[in-house]
Design brief:
The protein has 502 residues and is an alpha/beta fold. The protein has 15 helices and 24 strands. It binds malonyl-coenzyme A and adenosine monophosphate (AMP).
């Protein structure tokens, strides 16, 4: 089944309900969303999109771009979202790797992206237009809606979500219609969506948290979403009394809680605050409870798998834990051979279930490396499971920094830093950051005199999205290495743990 048909079933009794609501007033009903997505589907089909072909999309958050997402799926295409922070040189890699039929970019990038597309032989580039009279939106509004939903089999791909790899090259996690439907249905039930719910949607729509978890669970319930273009603590506070649900990364909660006079009264109509994508410390969770009067429900997931564990809606939500396997997922904490460890011991969490992805796009060897022979996927997250099955994430086996909910792979940054004249070698690490959880720190060795910070920053411009840029540069005479010659990052993390402390 195409997931669009699943949504249409859910909307059939609620077509007049608002789907997306702007705090300034305008809204789009579920019926209008269905119609608009059919118009985008018509434009894509008119561009020759065949079932299973990719549509790479790097666009801002808007009502129209949600309809575009649904339109791609409706037309049988595979949606490939890109972080709006990616630079043109990063985008080139994704376009080349995804091999799309259509690329949709922001109007401001259309010349650069068109040049890449021509170079790589991509037939169509579209941009939303600077107003409703131009560009892709205008085409969609003028098109006759493609009402028929293109049929898809459960294992057919719906989306490819890029996640960076330890080698520095991003891998596209392939997600099928069945993967997305299963996780949406499970979470919708687990978190008790009901007909009075209203969600505040303040996450980006290019990662699984904002795109799948928030949109899909709400859409399965025809829940109205107060749709904010980006995170803005004061704006969220002003919308809280109209809402019952908020999904966010830990930074959302620390910033909201820090607002002057913020408290339980702001949250009086709220039913549930959900946190994920990055660790929420027990202290941050307790601080939020004290301020808001609500216990955050923390859950754990990843692009390859959707949501894997969740604290319970009813029952103890224990700070510092991510709860239990969601229905359908089998999870184990294993040693480095895949053997399950006794409860209470730390190992890597391995998972198997119906939302688990179909492998990495055109990278069978990488896919094989991350699966056990018995079908379990190796997440790379270190965890402990207690006797009751409750999981705590205690670190990462993979070399990954999570800053404000964005994943940053050190290797990718090290490759760029290593190429800067005057840099001999580098090690990129994460250090505790008061707002973002972790911040990126570059530890470097110079060929001669250290390169001034300003020069380092300039050299990074254009190569890496700004959220990946190190904001601290630390120069050493040599990197600490073990007897095998491997850089001891744990040592560096300990030594420079204070890099971002006030
Ligand atoms: C923005 N900046 C960041 C950053 N976000 N730097 C490091 N880490 C981040 N997360 C930088 C920008 O490059 C810019 O730098 C400056 O901060 C201001 O930009 P901004 O856009 O005004 O940022 P801000 O509003 O402060 O954004 C912070 C944030 C945002 C936390 C609200 O990053 C956010 O919405 N994060 C959510 C990420 C997310 O959805 N993750 C889900 C992944 S899915 P300069 O130098 O240009 O000024 C996943 C699976 C799962 O993990 O389990 O859900
Ligand atoms: P992504 O690849 O962007 O989907 O990010 C997935 C990664 O985010 C996971 O492998 C974890 O490392 C991390 N993550 C997600 N949720 C949590 C959580 N609640 N606590 C700790 N880490 C998390």
């Amino acid at each position: 089944m195409n997931i669009i048909e699943r949504f249409q079933d859910a909307w059939s009794e609620a077509l007049d309900r608002p789907c997306l609501v702007s705090p300034q007033g305008p809204s789009l009903t579920y019926s209008e969303m269905d119609d608009l997505s059919a118009r985008f589907a018509a434009v894509l089909l008119g561009a020759g999109l065949q079932p299973g072909e990719r549509v790479v999309v790097q666009v801002d958050k808007s009502f129209g771009n949600v309809a575009l997402y649904l339109g791609v799926l409706r037309a049988g295409g595979v949606y490939v979202p890109l972080n709006t922070g990616y630079t043109t040189s990063e985008v080139r890699y994704f376009i080349e790797n995804a091999d799309p039929r259509v690329v949709v970019c922001r109007p401001s990038n259309v010349d650069e992206v068109s040049a890449i597309a021509t170079d790589l032989g991509v037939p169509t580039v579209e941009a939303p237009g600077t107003d409703a009279a131009t560009g892709l939106w205008a085409k969609a509004l003028a098109a006759a809606p493609a009402r028929d939903v293109v049929e898809r089999e459960p294992d057919d791909l719906a989306a490819i979500v890029y996640t960076s790899g330890t080698t520095g090259r991003s891998k596209g996690a392939m997600l099928s219609h069945a993967n997305l439907i299963d996780n949406a249905e499970v979470l919708h039930k687990l978190w008790g969506f009901n007909s009075d719910d209203v969600l505040i949607h303040a996450l980006p729509i290019f990662h699984v948290h904002g795109l799948f978890v928030a949109l899909h669970t709400s859409m399965l319930n025809a829940t109205p979403m107060i749709f904010l273009p980006a995170f803005d603590a004061e704006l969220i506070r002003s919308q809280l009394p109209k809402a019952t649900l908020l999904m966010g990364v830990p930074t959302f909660y620390s910033r909201l809680g820090a607002l002057d006079g913020f408290g339980a009264d702001d949250c009086r109509n709220m039913r549930l605050f959900i946190s994920g994508s990055a660790p929420l410390t027990a202290k941050a969770s307790d601080d939020w409870t004290e301020k808001s009067g609500h216990r955050v429900l923390e859950r754990y997931g990843m692009s390859e798998a959707g949501m894997i564990t969740s604290n319970p809606l009813d029952g103890d939500r224990i700070a510092g834990t991510v709860g239990f396997a969601v229905p359908g997922y089998d999870i184990r904490v294993a040693d480095d051979t895949g053997k399950e460890l006794p409860r209470g011991e730390t190992g890597v969490i391995e998972i198997k279930g119906p939302s688990l992805f179909q492998g990495y796009w055109r990278m069978p060897e990488k896919t094989a490396e991350e699966f056990r022979a018995d079908g379990y996927f190796i997440t790379g997250d270190n965890a402990v499971m207690d006797e009751t099955g409750r999981v705590s994430i205690v670190g990462r086996a993979k070399d990954l920094i999570i800053s404000g909910g964005y994943n940053i792979y050190p290797k990718e940054i090290e490759l760029v830093l290593d190429a800067i004249p005057g840099v001999l070698e580098t090690a990129v690490i994460g250090a505790p950051h008061p707002e973002m959880g972790e911040g990126v720190v570059a530890v470097l060795v110079a060929t001669g005199a250290p390169v001034p910070d300003e020069q380092m920053k300039q050299a990074l411009e254009g190569s890496l999205a700004r959220f990946k840029h190190p904001r601290r540069f630390i120069w050493l005479d040599a990197l600490p290495r073990n007897t095998m010659g491997k850089v001891q990052k744990a040592e560096l993390r300990k030594q420079f743990a204070g890099a971002y402390s006030a």
